[in-house]
Amino acid sequence: MLQLNKPYLTNFQPFISYENIFNQEECNYICSLAWQWEDGLTHGSKSRNKEVRDADVFWLYFKQDLTWIWERLKYHIEEANSRIWHFELENFHEHIQLTRYTKNGHYDWHVDNGNEKSSHRKISCVVNLTNEYDYKGGGTLIKTGKNPILLPKQQGSLNIFPSYTLHKAKRINKGERKSLVCWVGGSHYR
Predict the structure, then answer these.
(1) Is residue 98 in a domain?
(2) Which of 23, 87, 93, 147 is the most buried (most CB within 10 A)?
(3) What are the Cα distances from residue 190, in Å, to 56, 87, 88?
(4) pLDDT tens, 64-92?
(5) CATH number of the domain bearing residue 117
(6) How many domains would you assign to the chain?
(7) 53-62 residue pLDDT tens
């Protein structure tokens, strides 16, 4: 039998959450950066399919005066990866996505990696920018077994999970939810 010299992961977790990586004032400021929302499309589509995804997005480009956002995310992503997954990561290959879900807004079950530009994604991150009492419903569910897990919804909380994890944004019943979404990647899994 062929033996591998690599140790097994003994502390695997399907996700990790950090509370308050951004305070309320910072969350509000990040939300204010979105000045023109566009349709949130699924990878490869040219028009919105509300059965799959009903959301608006704004792309936050890397700018010198916003490096604090990337640096704060990077610190927590590296810490989580070194504790749990040990993926070979390179950097943020894509811009940060601000997402807005209004009444009935949602994103059905999906994974964040696939082919073309999403093939490098290894870690997905969601930061809740809206106070969880300002909307009903919503939140991020992940599924790694029979029962889905609702990730923490507190404002400023960061949820990190492997990009191959099946997940969804639950439907908003009332109010509006805004989140920051980003992906970190590298070369193919090894």
Answers:
(1) yes
(2) 87
(3) 34, 8, 8
(4) 789 999 999 999 999 999 999 999 999 88
(5) 2.60.120.620
(6) 1
(7) 889 999 998 8
